[in-house]
Queue: 2 jobs
Job 1
Amino acid sequence: MTRSLSILGATGSIGASTLDLIRRERGAWRVVALTANGNAADLARLAREFAAEVAVVADEASLPALRAALAGSGIAAAGGASALVEAASRPVDLTVAAIVGCAGLAPTMAAIEQGRTVALANKEALVSAGAVMTAAVERHGTTLLPMDSEHNAIFQCLAAGDLAHVRAITLTASGGPFRDWSAEQLAAATPQQAIKHPNWAMGAKISVDSATMFNKGLELIEAHHLFPVGLEKLRIVVHPQSVVHSMVEYRDGSTLAQLGPSDMRVPIASCLAWPSRMDTPCAPLDLAALGELTFRAPDEARFPATRLCRQAAEAGGAVPAVLNAANEVAVAAFLAGQIGFTRIAVTVEELLARYAPAAAATLGDVIAVDAEARSRMRQMMELV
Ligand code: NDP
């Protein structure tokens, strides 16, 4: 039976891994919408290859290039924020939400409102709009599948038991490329060094997040919404080999873990085939060759991001949206060479101390807080 699929963020790292799996089972899928920000050439190439119904660039300035690249193909081309939301609203069996940043929030919510199945990679959307998004999932009877490798691991481990019996959930963290660096070395870290992840090939923003440990902190907030066991039961452990993707400990002392290669095609395949299974081209785990798996506590003195994220989750309301927006601005400034690596966490903490947002009850409220936090962050960092 053919299933319909849309990919929001098709030209990114998650988009490429998803399409790699779709390509191997071409007959099983009908591709409806593929989206990008400004990369019209790659988007048009993918839309043609997968015979998509519509291709959308969020950045309207890229629409003429997209139209030209799709001329004669019969594929509809569109551009701008509302076109993105319209494409995400087209009913499909599965939407892969893989836009980076809070920019993915509105289209992801539009997909959720269709009441079908949404596989969520776009963690920033859930971090910013946690309560609003989980309420929409509930209201529309949507199935939300976690695509992030840690949350997908937890989701799989929870298939064996009930949330009510969970004693703890442990997110594993590789520790990123700087896990063994001194404070002095961290202060001098460059964007090139930060985006070179030791275990995973990912987009630039999440690679920097992994180096600062904001990625793990955002994942803690994400887990808090996806698996509501209480923040005090959510833990983080550094596991440099990235083989154990996360663990669930039950009240009887049983701990279940999900293991696999450091290849996003494994959790993506789990979402594509759920509740069944599918083949992937990933090499099977060879534990004897790996030799040993190691674990250690995170160092929040060198990497304060996980502390900031836990505090934001404890504060609740729109505070995580402020934290996320501040981090997105700081990461962009770091990648542009405007601030040093250790300034990312320092400036995020500064904005959190200065800006106490009103509660956000609707999608519009969250988007307004996100915009306000970005503007204040840029001013504070004198990037305006
Ligand atoms: P990439 O940077 O590789 O890709 C991002 C995608 O989003 C691209 O298609 C990009 O289009 C599009 N995009 C960027 N900005 C906007 C915007 N303002 N509006 C609309 N679309 C936009 O990111 P990743 O694939 O690495 O990550 C995507 C999401 O998945 C992130 O939330 C990340 O945290 C999460 N994730 C990623 C993992 C990974 O291994 N990469 C693992 C787990 C989670 P364009 O190409 O035109 O710029």
Job 2
Amino acid sequence: MLNHNLEFLVSEKKLRDITNKILSNQRINQKEGLHLYEKAPISLLGFLANKIRKKKNGNYTYFNKNIHIEPTNICVFDCKFCAYSRMLNKKDEGWEFTKDQIIAKIKKHVDITEVHIVGGVHPKMGLHYFIDLIKKIKKIRPKLHIKAFTAVELEYMCRKAKVSYEEGLKMLKEAGQDSLPGGGAEIFDKSIREKICKDKCSTEQWLKIHETAHKLSMPSNATMLYGHIEEPIHIIDHMSRLRELQDKTNGFNTFIPLKYRNGNNQMSHIKEASIIDDIRLYSFSRIYMDNFNHIKAYWPMIGKKTTQILLSFGIDDIDGTIDDTTKIYSMAGAEEKNPKMSTNEIVEMIKNVGKIPIQRDTLYNVLKEY
Ligand code: V47
Ligand code: SF4
């Protein structure tokens, strides 16, 4: 029950009832979630989020040693928020790495445990191309965890190769792919999706692909793009659909809210969320996504300073060392133009807020405590 000395945080009866429900470990429903998200002061959200974080992860804050590979920025789709993709006919601004170039990049990074591979949807890089790439990576680094291809890329690959999601994912798994990243989810609500990314995989397809991966013992992550034209009700709807699938499969490792960045895209007129909005969204995620073990702040996108603040608002994971291998966010105007952090820097960032830095593998096994 709510301790008396907290009543100054929660004067309103409805909010107090919701708070008591959370404190007694009961799940809050969509209506309660919406009320909490819209009405609670961030001090209350932070308090509740931290309680949950502590119960799930103690004072541990996770990071991993990884690089990103973005094989191409050529893309057949036209998401309005994307600053990164180029059409095939604008090839001078695009890049296409060869498999040899990708292997050379991986060879340069000897101490990473994970490679994250996500790029544009190139009409000529299909399922068999990527199966071969994955085999080549596993040949030189059999133990490297390969987290690859958003549901958007997978939907296109499987459709073009005329195989079911299950067949396609099985082939990728046999080649050596270990898990799926969480991208491409954006916002599940149909009317918003129609306005920001109408030509790529649908909500139903995104959820089906992740469900199928979980069935094949390929875990995955989940994301949500926030801070553009969505309303609070769409955020609750998005999180509820993920929470429902997680109840069914328990295959998601982490939830990653992705803050919309407004540089160089077709929605640049939209103002970015404030830091208060970020804190509200992240701490609410920790409270509402009660069956997700981890909530990740992806630091190259949200910036180092905000990431550090979020560690005091329920966040227990900040992703990885990256080593300047991603362009998606710097092209969209994120603070980190050449994102890389040494292990020492990450450890310091976490220790500075009184948390315990843990180097993890992709599946959150502890590799080293600092
Ligand atoms: O789906 C694109 C987002 C995602 C913008 O699983 C933008 O560990 C903000 O999924 N502003 C791809 N976001 C990246 C992704 C990801 C990143 C880090 C870790 C993991 C993981 C997954 O990037 C896209 C889209 O939602 N995005 N443009 C933009 N202007
Ligand atoms: Fe293509 Fe992904 Fe950009 Fe959409 S977000 S245009 S699918 S690269």
